[in-house]
Amino acid sequence: MFSQNFTEREIQKIHAQRINIIALFQQQVSYCIHREYSHAMYRCRILKTLQGCFNLGCLISVFILTAQIEAQQPAGGAPLKKIIYVDLRNVSGRSDYQWIENSVGNNMHKTASAKYQYTRIEKTEWSSRAEDLGITPQDYDNQVLMRRLGFSLGADGVIFGSFEILQKGGATRLSITGKILSVIDNSIVSEKTVESGLDSTVFDATDELSESLASKIRDLFFPTDTGALWRTALLPGWGHFYKQRPVWGYITSGVFGAAFAYSSYSVVSYFIAKSEYDNYVPENVKTPQGETALVNEAEASAKFAQLLSDQNTKSDSALTSLYILGGIYAISLIHAWFIDAEVYATSTTESPQGTKSGVIGAVYPTYDPMMREAGVGFQLRYSF
Asked: Does domain 81-220 have CATH number 3.40.50.10070?
């Protein structure tokens, strides 16, 4: 949440300030571009750099407004996590212990559902899909196939495993293994193996396994900061979607995409301008003495000056756009790391927005067109 809320009037004012700031600097830059005096070039470059900085500040203000919009939205707007409890594979094939196949999953669901809100994909649905994919009960402990099953049903996690009867030191033991698979990360977030004799202790073993895994199922609800970071590094916005923050994901990917497109255009324009300057050959003639002379020296000089000025202008624009692109990329990485994941937990001991606490600040420009005064605004977002 924020230390204070934006009113509708304040939101409109910030948008108006952004328009005024950009219009003011574009006017100044346009004035400089049309000046043909060399002493104005340094002033132009400074103003264009300031324009890039202020535009970047305005983008940050959009991030601030979006965070406020998200904070004011009611909880529960995003879809719940989906989990599949696959029957444990009966490796030994003992029919008298067949009841263990789904008892662990049922016990886990009973414990976890009392703490977390999620959707359990029922056996009739996942078993039918498994059959369509050619997955048999003998494959229920195969991580690759379980992830494929989870993907096909849009699940976030799959609980699977196996049990078998072993001979250890002359004694017959029952070994049960359960695993929690994160489908999106393709990683085992928790694994537990318990053993017992073939007596009443089997019930204690299944309860122990269920409770242990149920306590770890929370890891499916908390996307990691490192996971969001490397996804954002590959594609800005992906890390925010990974943390179940689609609004931020759309904004981050959209802003970065626009900045990347503009940077690409600016860089290409610069190389075109540079090529025109390098390859320009003024009109010339051969004198009776066999020498080369310009047809119009003044016109050639003016054309060289115009091409050089255009090249310098495109160079400044390309550099500024690349600086802005780098800044947006860096902000996306930092934001993806610090933003809290969207989590749904009913327990009062679990934060519905994650486990981190801290403060995130942002700076945005302010400008009063009537008083012609510019300043800087600052907002803090804190979570517990």
From this structure: yes
> Between the CA of residue 301 and those of 39, 284, 307, 335, what are the distances in Å?
18, 13, 10, 51
Closest CA to 139 of 93, 78, 91, 184: 91
Task: Identify which of 151, 156, 149, 150 has the alpha carbon closest to the alpha carbon of residue 116.
Answer: 156
Work out the number of other CB atoms within 10 angstroms of the CB of residue 89: 20
**Cβ proximity of 156 and 183 under 8 Å:** yes
To 5 degrees, how large is the angle CA 40–CA 273–CA 298? 65
Give the pLDDT band of residue 50 (cuts 50, 70, 90).
low
Question: Distance between CA 342 and CA 335 in Å, rounded?
Answer: 14
Q: What is the pLDDT of residue 72?
A: 46
Sequence length of the chain is 384
Token couple for 335 = 């934001």
Query: Domain limits of the chain?
Result: 8-77+227-383, 81-220
Is the CB of residue 178 less than 8 Å from the CB of residue 159?
A: yes
Q: pLDDT-derived band of residue 378, with 50, 70 and 90 as boundaries?
A: very low
Q: What is the mean pLDDT of the chain?
A: 75
CB atoms closer than 10 angstroms to residue 350? 17
Pairing of strands 157-168, 171-182: antiparallel
Is the CA virtual torsion 254, 256, 257, 262 positive or negative?
positive
Phi and psi at residue 87, to the nearest 5°: -60, 140
What separation, in Å, do the N-terminal and C-terminal C-alpha atoms of the chain show? 10
Amino acid at 380: L
User: Which tens digit of pLDDT belongs to each residue from 169-216?
Assistant: 778 899 999 999 988 878 898 899 999 888 888 888 888 988 888 888
Amino acid 35 reads R
Spatial CA neighbour of 155 closest among 104, 201, 119 = 119
- pLDDT winner (highest mean) among 66-80, 258-272, 351-365, 370-384: 258-272
Cα distance between residue 105 and residue 117, in whole Å: 16
At 6, list the tokens. 């934006």
pLDDT tops 50 at residue 278: yes
Instruction: Map tokens 């003495």 to a residue.
Output: 289
- 8 Å CB contact between 73 and 353: no
